[in-house]
Every structure is written in structure tokens, then in C-alpha cells.
Write a structure and sequence with these properties.
With 511 residues, the chain is an alpha/beta fold. The chain has a domain at 20-251 and 428-510: Amidase signature (AS) domain (Amidase signature (AS) enzymes), CATH 3.90.1300. Helices cover 31% and strands 12% of the residues. The protein is built from 16 helices and eleven strands. The protein has helices at 79-86, 133-140, 157-163, 197-204, 228-234, 248-252, 270-285, 299-317, 331-334, 339-350, 353-365, 372-392, 440-445, 448-453, 459-464, 500-510; strands at residues 20-23, 47-52, 89-95, 146-151, 166-169, 189-194, 256-260, 290-294, 427-431, 468-474, 488-495. An eleven-stranded mixed sheet has the order 1-3-2-4-6-5-10-11-9-7-8, sandwiched between helices. Helix 7 (270-285) links the parallel strand 7 and strand 8 (290-294). The termini are close together. Mean pLDDT is 87; it is low at 1-14, 413-421 and 479-483. It binds glutamine. This is Amidase signature domain-containing protein. It comes from Chaetomium tenue.
Length: 511
């Protein structure tokens, strides 16, 4: 059942895509015994892996695409890399990104912008999306089987949508973040990109959930990784983790998909809107699923809340880059006796514009004069976003009590579309991004706010810690304003917390 065609990599022309920051030597040294997880899963077929350069590896530098860390070699390897090596991964290289994961087009990089380019796109260079743009391009170009990215507010899903590949963001706390350079801890997740859902499913869920599934492995080195006991509680009532999992048409029959009305925004490209409606129609008419409108009223505040919370956490995380313990020191200032000069000079040179903007924004919203109006309010919105999701999903969120919807949480009142009622659905179906990949030349003319807008459909799931996946959604080439643009957008499926196995099965069935 093909709602979406698979990604076509034929006709890809190798130009200077700038998607790798470093590449592995031909023959990579075998991992040492100490890098193996204690319980070795059964041998898996070898596959090639690209790793976003904000994830620590010992075989390559880990630069985060920042001038500050241009020579940084991590003394340890991220758990996720070790776990994938144990499942047959051969690391091909480290991919380019927006510095520290901050951006939506992989243009804010000390290593230069990533471009996506193929014969079908003519001479123009298009945005690869961000911040895991290098990983998405490496997968789309057929250079690797799987790529690792990080998704804080959409950084795996958006590049997947722009590049016509699959991008999966797991439930928060499922995959270990040990060795992943933090951007905004309460939102950061490790995500996977591949050309098909099957490969990601195999790694995350494993063989029927019995062996090899990454979802099972708690990591005590990551305080936000769910403990084994918590994982045990979360799988209660969830399909696909070890138990029976329906496949193909069977998984779709009788499922309820919610169309969030608030995602039908004015800025949505008409071609994407049509493709979204068509996908919903196929699900309903051909595959026996039910498609119902749902309302997530806090959606319109989610983007603003995200751009308060993420920079606030970033400003705190990035305070450690001082040119003394971390990061390249500004040697001119180093001779100056005053420590503050060294700190300021090193940070002034080490960080790019976007990162500095986030630090300023975050420092301001956390300051005593602004805290109540920004950070505290944003946390309230985050709670409302989470409640919205809990209200529409049939499954309960194992981390939160089911709450009644409280309209008094915000100073301003929020209208509730009562007529849509608390329709309980299995998954939400929406676009990944409001537009197709823009031309790089146009991105360069955008204001920072324009770039933030791209994340409007991806940040709600991030704020709520929910699993979400972007699969390729073909957009009709004859649509007036998409002529000459890449013909693939992203269809996003969002599931209730820890419903990852079923989400992947459903995505597999429709792609
Ligand atoms: N574009 C978003 C941001 O700049 C998301 C980034 C991410 O998910 N790492 O914050």
C-alpha cells in the first residue's frame, strides 16, 4: 500500500553538497571490547552509518559545526554509536549541521552550508533542512544506509521532509543521549534517518521486540534515559514491543487518525495541503482507517513557547564554553590578565551569529525581569500542549495523569472548539513542514523569524516528548507554485508517548 513513493536516489548528481565534516579512513578500526555493550545482541547484517557531528565519536573529531570545537576529539563514544556498531554499523563519517543543532536549513555551520542538489532540480541548490541536513543528504544520496541526527524541535523530521527520506524522532527518554552534545536537554532526542521505514524499525523495535531493539536499552549514564522499570511500565497496553504486531493493511484497518485543524494554516503550501488531504482520503477509503478532525488549540502558542524554552536551556548549556576548559581559546585575549576578557573574546570568536542570538535570547528570558513573562509562561504553554495531545489520544500517557482541560492556565483565554469534542485517536496525521525545500539563495535572504516558522508543525510533538516520524509525501508537480521545486514533502505521523513500535509499523505500512 503506497501512500507515498519511496525515495528515488537515481539521478542524484554529486556536486559539492558539503554534507560531511569528516570522513572515515577506508578501513575503520574494529571497536574495542570495552565499547561493546555488555549483552551482545545477535549479529546483524552490516550497514553503513553517518553520524551528525554533535554526537561524540572517538574515531573522528566532534565539532558541532562550531569554530569553538573545530579541533575537539571526544575521549568517549556516544552510547547510541556504540549500540549501532554492535548491530553492524560501519561509521562512514560525521555530518554537517547547524552549529550545536540550532537552525532549520544547515546553513549556520562553521563548515559552510549544506546543499541538496540533484539532476531533477536543475542548477539550483536547495535547503537540505536542518539541523541534521548533512545526515539527510548522505541518506538521500545513497551514501549511507542509516544516519543519526538529533531532533530538539524538528531537526530530524524537517531535513527528512526536504530531502525525501524518512526521519524518526523517538519518545523522549527512549534512546540514550549520553555523548550527544546538549542543545536543550528537556527537548533533545537522538533520531534516525533512512530511505525506508523498515531499516529504522529493525533497529529501534528489533526482531519482534525480542532481541536487538534499541528501545529496550536503558542507559544509566544518561539521567533522562528511562530506567528499565519505567520502560516496563510504559509498554503496558502498547503494541509491538515483544508481542503481536499486525502488519500491512491489517495494522491500518480500524485505526483512527486525527487531522489537527490548527495545522491547516494560511502559510501551508497548497500542493502540500492537497497531498495531505489525499493521503487522508486514501487511508480512509482504501485502507479502512477512520480519519477525524481533532483540535489542538494550544498549537498556535507552541512555536513561541519552543523559542523561549530551547534558547533558555541553550544559554545555560553553552555557558561552559569558556576557552579555558572547553573550546578554542582566543590567544590574543589569553595574555590579558582579566579572565572576563578571555571569556568574552573566546566566545565572541568561537560562536556563530545564530548561536549568539540564542544565547542572548535565552539569557534575557531567564533574567529576573523577564522570567515571569517568558520562561514561566512558556512552561505553562508546554503543559497545555501536552494536555491537548493527551486529550485527543485514545492511549494514556504513562508519564502523566489524565487531566481535565483547564482554560484558566493562561492569562488570555483559549477558545475550545467544543464541537470537535474529545475525539480519541491513535495517531495524528499532518505535514512535517509548511513548505517544500526553499532555494538556498532564498534562505540566505530570510530573517531568523522566517526560519523559525519552518518548525511550526514539528515543535508541538517535541514539547510533549512524543514519537513522530516524517515519511516522503509526493506533491503533484503540476501544482502551480511548486513547479521546479523538489517534488517531495513530508507526511508526519505523531503517536502517544511510547507508542513508537506501532507508529513505526503504521509508517511502514503506508510508505
Ligand atoms: N530548528 C529548530 C531550532 O533551531 C530545531 C533544531 C533541532 O531540532 N535541533 O531550534
Amino acid at each position: 500500500l503506497r501512500l507515498c513513493h519511496g525515495c528515488s536516489v537515481t539521478g542524484q548528481q554529486r556536486r559539492l553538497l558539503n554534507h560531511f565534516i569528516s570522513k572515515a579512513p577506508e578501513s575503520e578500526p574494529e571497536p574495542t571490547a570495552t565499547q561493546q555493550p555488555p549483552l551482545s545482541p545477535p549479529p546483524h547484517a552490516p550497514f553503513t552509518l553517518a553520524v551528525k557531528d554533535n554526537i561524540a565519536t572517538t574515531t573522528h573529531p566532534t565539532t558541532c559545526a562550531s569554530a569553538f570545537l573545530s579541533t575537539h576529539h571526544s575521549p568517549f563514544e556516544a552510547t547510541i554509536v556504540t549500540q549501532l556498531r554492535a548491530r553492524g554499523a560501519r561509521l562512514v563519517g560525521k555530518t554537517n549541521l547547524d552549529e550545536f543543532g540550532m537552525g532549520s536549513h544547515s546553513t549556520h555551520s562553521a563548515a559552510g552550508a549544506v546543499a541538496q542538489s540533484s539532476l531533477s532540480l536543475g542548477d539550483d541548490e536547495y535547503s537540505a533542512g536542518g539541523s541534521s541536513g548533512g545526515s539527510a543528504v548522505a541518506v538521500a544520496a545513497g551514501e549511507v544506509d542509516v544516519a543519526l541526527g538529533t531532533d530538539t524541535g524538528g531537526s530530524v523530521r524537517l531535513p527528512a521532509a526536504y530531502c525525501g527520506v524518512v526521519g524518526f524522532k523517538p519518545s523522549y527518554g527512549m534512546l540514550s543521549r549520553f555523548g550527544v552534545v546538549p542543545y536543550a536537554n528537556s527537548l533533545d532526542t537522538v533520531g534516525l534517518l533512512a530511505r525506508g521505514v523498515g531499516r529504522i524499525r529493525e533497529l529501534v523495535v528489533g526482531d519482534g521486540g525480542v532481541a536487538g531493539g534499541l528501545w529496550k536499552e536503558a542507559d544509566s549514564r544518561d539521567p533522562t534515559s528511562l530506567s528499565e522499570a519505567a520502560r516496563g511500565r510504559c509498554v503496558v497496553g502498547r503494541e509491538g514491543f515483544g508481542g503481536e504486531q499486525k502488519e500491512g493493511r491489517d495494522v491500518l484497518r480500524g485505526l483512527r487518525f486525527g487531522i489537527p485543524l490548527e495545522y491547516n494554516i494560511e502559510e501551508l503550501d497548497p500542493g502540500i495541503r492537497d497531498a495531505w488531504a489525499k493521503a487522508a482520503k486514501i487511508l480512509q477509503e482504501e485502507y479502512g482507517a477512520r480519519v477525524v478532525p481533532v483540535s489542538l488549540p494550544s498549537t498556535r502558542h507552541a512555536l513561541a513557547a519552543y523559542y523561549v524554552i530551547a534558547p533558555a536551556e541553550a544559554s545555560s548549556n553553552l555557558a561552559k564554553y569558556d576557552g579555558v576548559r572547553y573550546g578554542t581559546r582566543d590567544t590574543d585575549a589569553a595574555s590579558d590578565a582579566a579572565g572576563g576578557v578571555l571569556y568574552a573574546a573566546s566566545r565572541g570568536k568561537g560562536f556563530g551569529d545564530e548561536v549568539r542570538r540564542r544565547i542572548l535570547l535565552g539569557s534575557y528570558t531567564l533574567s529576573s525581569e523577564a522570567m515571569d513573562n517568558y520562561f514561566i509562561k512558556a512552561q505553562r504553554v508546554r503543559r497545555l500542549v501536552r494536555k491537548d495531545f493527551n486529550r485527543v489520544f485514545a492511549l494514556d500517557n504513562p508519564l502523566h495523569e489524565r487531566e481535565t482541560f483547564d482554560l484558566t492556565d493562561l492569562d488570555e483565554s483559549i477558545e475550545m472548539e467544543d464541537k470537535w469534542g474529545p475525539e480519541e485517536v491513535d495517531f495524528l496525521l499532518c505535514p512535517t513542514a509548511p513548505t517544500l525545500a526553499p532555494k538556498l539563495a532564498d534562505v540566505m535572504k530570510q530573517t531568523p523569524l522566517d526560519a523559525y516558522m519552518n518548525d511550526v508543525f514539528t515543535v508541538p510533538a517535541s514539547l510533549a516528548g512524543l514519537p513522530a516520524i516524517s515519511i516522503p509525501l509526493p506533491v503533484a508537480p503540476e501544482t502551480e507554485n511548486v513547479t521546479g521545486k523538489p517534488g517531495t514533502a513530508g507526511l508526519q505521523l505523531i503517536g502517544q508517548y511510547w507508542d513508537d513500535a506501532r507508529l513505526l509499523a503504521v509508517a511502514d505500512a503506508v510508505s
